[in-house]
Structure formats: C-alpha cells, structure tokens
Amino acid sequence: MKKIGLIGILFLFFCVNIAFADEIDDCIKNYPGNQDPCITLIQKKVFELNNAIVPLQKESVGIRSKISSAKSQIVSMENQMILLTKRLIDKEADMEVQRILMGERVRRYYINSKKYTPIMIFLSSGESSGLLRQYTLFQAVISQDKNTVSNYILDLKNLELNKAKVLVEKNKIAVIKKDMETRFGFLAGEIKKAEAYKAVLSAKQRELEAQRFASLNLPTSLGAGPLMCTDDRKIDPGFGSGFAFFTFGIPHHVGLNQYGAFGRANVGQNYKDIINAYYNGVSIEKKPNITIKVKGYGSMSLENYLLGIYEVPSSWPMEALKAQVLAARSYALSYTNNGAKEICTTQACQVYKGGNKGGGWEQAVKATEGEVVTKNGQPITAWFASTAGAYTYTSGDIGWKSTDWTKRTRDTNGDINSFDDLFKKAYDKDSPCFYAAQGFRKEYNKSAWLKPSEVADVVNVILLAQKDSSVQNHLCYKNDSAHGCTDTWDFERVKTELRNRGGSPFNLINSVNISDWNKNEGRVNTISFSGDAGGASFAGATFKSYFNIRAPANISIVGPLYNVEKR
C-alpha cells in the first residue's frame, strides 16, 4: 500500500504537469510587469513536489541498503565457496597420496596375512609370541587405515553437501537481489522523473527571478555604463537599528570576470593566464579575419568590429585589455556562427558603439589579431561580466545550457577562511559592486536597510511555508498593487496563521548570522536568526528565494553568496 501511495502521488504530479504549465503561462500574462506571484506559485509546486519525492527517496535508500546487504551476503557466500573448493582440492590431493600409501599397505597386508595366519602362529611354538604381537600390530594399522579412509570419504561427502547448500543459498539471494533491483529501478525512475519536473520548475523560477533582477537595472558588464552600486553601510535610513543583506558580485558570474582580470593583470598575470583562469580546458588559436554583420551598422571585418567594442576602460592594464579582446572576438564568432548571424550592439550581446575606441584598447586588438579562445577547435561563447564577487560559476549553475568550457573558480589570490579574506584577496575587490546591497526604498534615503520587524516577517513567512505549503500564494510582499499577489497576508496575518499551525512567530529579529558558507564555491549554506521567539536557521538558498519575494520594493539578494550588515 505504501508503494502504491507514493507512486500515486507522483502520478498525480505528472498528470497535472501540463495544466500547471498553463497555470504559469496564465500567471505571466496576468502580471506582465511583475514576477513575484508567479515565483510564489512555482515555489509552492516545488515545495509540494519535494514532499512527494522525499518519502520515495527514503524508500529507495532502504532498498539500496537491502541490495547492498544482499550483495555482501553473496560475496561472503562466494568467498566460502572459494574456501570450500580449495579445501576440497587439498583433501582430494591428500586422498590421492593416501590411496598410494594404502595400496602399498594393502599389498604388504595381503603378503603378511598369508604369512602370519593364526594357524602358523599356533604351529610356530618358538616364535608364536612374537608373531602374535606382529600380527596384532598389523591388524591395528589396517584398522587405522580403514578409519582414515572412512573419515576422508565422510569429509568429502560433507564438502559436497555444503557446496550444494551454498549454491542453493546463492541462487536464493540472487533472486532476492534481482527483485530488489527491479523495485529500486522502478522507484529510481519515478524519482528521476520527479526531479526532472522539479528542475523545470526551478529553471522557470530562476527565469522569473532574473526578470525581477532586471528591474534593478544592474549592468551585466562594464560596457553598459558605470557601475552604480552604492555602499549602504554609509547611508542612514532614518530609523534605528536594522539589517541589510549584501551580495558579493552581480549577475551573471559566468566566464571572464572583468574586474577580476583587472586585478590579475595588476599582480603580473598575462592575458593567457587570465583566459585560462576563467575558461576550462580551452586553447588559443589563430582564426581568419572574417566578415560579420552588426545590427544597425551593416557588414564589416571582425577586426574592425572589435575596435568599436566598449566593454572595459582603455586605461586598464594591457594584459586585462588583451584578455577582454580575446573574449570579445571569441564571443562574436560563436554568437554569429562564424558570420552567418547578425550580432546586436547592447550588453545582451556585447556593447558596440562604432568607430575606433583607440588608446590601449586599439593596441590590445592589434597585438592579439586573430587570436580566439577555442574548445575542440571551435570558438567558445566566451561570456563575461563585470563583477563575480570572488566566485565564478558554470553556465549550468545559473540555469543556462551546460557547457564544458565554463567553470567554478574561486577568484582570489590565496586561500579564504573568512569574509575579511575576500575583501583582501579577491581579484575583483576593487569593483564598486563587489559587495553591495541591491534595491532601495525612497522613503528610507534610497537604501536597502530593513527594520528588525521586516526581517522577522521574512523569517515568519519561511516558517509558515514550512508548516503549510498551501499558503504560498499569500506570502509575497504585502503591497498588492506593487506585487499583485492574491489575498496577500501582511505581517500580523502571517503571525496569526503561523500561530494557528503551532508555530511561534517572531516580532523582532535581534541578530542574523551567516553560520556556514562554502569557501571554495562561494555559497551560503546556512543562515541563522535569533529574536524574541528564540532561534531559527535556514538553508542559504531557501532564505534567498523567500527574501526575494517578500522583501519590500525591489530589495533583493542577487547571488548565492551574501552577508548581513547590522546598524
């Protein structure tokens, strides 16, 4: 019954899959300028799907354990078979030796039995006592030999019997193993389907979050204009104590880190070192100067096109400029499919303003003429962004198509043990967006500071969602006109609903701490809170996701690594 129930849960999910896809599409149409309600809807479905997957995973773990136990038993039996077979061979060899010895003994016995008969002992009065002793000894030897042969025969029979028993047990266990593997294979298949569906939902959520981040007008690269990140630690929001959530870097964290290249060049790395730091297993090859089509500018040679790229300042170190040239040249070739497709002129592709930028940039273009970053002989889509925040990720990590030339990089000059180390050792630490709180509210001096009660509200929302996934559509930011959620619950209503479900809501948060983070990959593992209701801890990704639908205005956490500042 348990198995049927679990499979039934998954069956229902797959039956409503198409309907839910339509539901998302309807949500996007109904709220064209606002992604929060759609993100909330997806989070609800992901939460429910997790509840379906977890018991299946637990059962599959149990089956894995049983299969492992069965395999161990089979290995044990096979080892016993090897031992018993060896003993059988050894004893058969012993028996062959005994057979030869016994043959000689039997021959002597036959001769002696004719020579030392009871009649001869009776007639030989002078030697009768000696002959009797010899005859008695000979009979004892024969009796011992007979017992030895009988014991070996019995041992051989026992060995054959044990061998047969082991084979029977081995066959039984093999049947059990096959049955469990069949069951596990089925469950694993169902889990895989559920995980795939969950991945689709997560990808959709990332897409909608990306649209929300777009409202922040964060430049992807330096070519889109000066970075306007501000340090909210220097801003007084006009209220007392509060918290601000600072993200390391800005999206998208994939490929060449422009400010990272700047930092690497300043410590003496050349452009090839820089390229290999950000792209995995690539080569640098010479390619011909083909003609490409540029939107709004017509056709031109690739090298002339590069002269008009405005992605980094010409005043930057030459090796950083060369690295950017190689990335731009490779991106153009890959994006246009070697000139077959037109390339745009904004940061959606790479920023082109026409003409010749001149200065150090022109020198870098000419010094690296024709040099392209390739993988297996083909130009790569050499993505780049202004500020990775000390960590780059693969394209698959952020929901793009997986590629084998992007990689996770800890972009630091030395080991990292703390956030303080990042501020000192990150190659892109000079970027104004290296560490910044994103979003703001005009009424609080255009800052991203939150009051202790507002942080408590986000915590309560997560606690309530964990208690009851059906309330997800009520949990986005309380301002309906700004966020469009259906029947949105405010701070007091969330507390009441949480209390009704046996939870203990917070009124105020006193402290927030990033209690655990991955220093090699740059991700928050656990974030902890304490306040008037005690303590609470959440996975870093979970808190980030709920924060981005509940925090007021457009205040957001825009990356997997973030920290908390208190005033």
UniProtKB/TrEMBL annotation:
One GO BP: sporulation resulting in formation of a cellular spore
Keyword Cell inner membrane: no
UniProt signal peptide: 1-21
Domain Sporulation stage II protein D amidase enhancer LytB N-terminal: 299-374
InterPro entries, alphabetized: SpoIID/LytB, SpoIID/LytB_N
Entry protein name: Sporulation stage II protein D amidase enhancer LytB N-terminal domain-containing protein
Membrane-spanning residues: none
Domain of life: Bacteria
Keywords of the record: Signal
NCBIfam families: SpoIID_LytB (TIGR02669)
